[in-house]
Amino acid sequence: MKDTNKHQGLRNQLAKLLEEKGITDKNVLEAIKKIPRHLFLNSSFEDFAYQDKAFPIAAGQTISQPYTVAYQSQLLEVKKDQKILEIGTGSGYQTAVLCLLGAKVYSVERQNELFKTTSLLLPKLGIRPKHLSFGDGYKGLPNHAPFDSIIVTAGAPTIPQPLMAQLKIGGRLVIPVGDKEQVMTLLIRKNETQFEKHEFGDFKFVPLLENKN
Fold this sequence. Notes:
Layout: H1 5-20, H2 26-34, E1 55-56, E2 62-63, H3 66-76, E3 83-87, H4 93-100, E4 104-109, H5 112-124, E5 131-134, E6 147-152, H6 161-165, E7 167-177, E8 182-189, E9 195-203
Parallel strand pairs: 3-4, 3-6, 4-5, 6-7
Antiparallel strand pairs: 1-2, 7-8, 8-9
């Protein structure tokens, strides 16, 4: 698991590109500069790891485009020691960004293969989420709720009610909503029953799958 000066140079270039594309959160850009994205990908993709592109990972899933990771992270407005629920651990790259931003990350992954791989990888990189679990992201993690923020890294046709219920008042929920293409959506919880909704452009995600049992 090598991380070289060349990789660091490529990360710096990637962060500069993201800044040019409109990412303004300096903490997010610093996290992008620090995390060895090539170690989250199959080694055959290593030469492409610092391009601003999504790539396939195991179980028919993808590692999100760095711009998308940075964009969602910026919308969360992460503050140190905030308790954040991530739906869709995937490769663990977004998890790593949130951890470097100082969040206490609780993450759920429904693909067992990815859950096992990522659970081993993150500690090797010195990244320690508060809690990783294998399960149905639609249900969230009610036993650990409420959360300061919730991030969903897969496209959902609608916003799952259990996730809205697990958000603290004042909390932020960032989720791509839609079927074939998704609109990046931010919900801010105003009180027990009211949410303020903001929409930010089109993105493409793998679907958020729900266990029917």
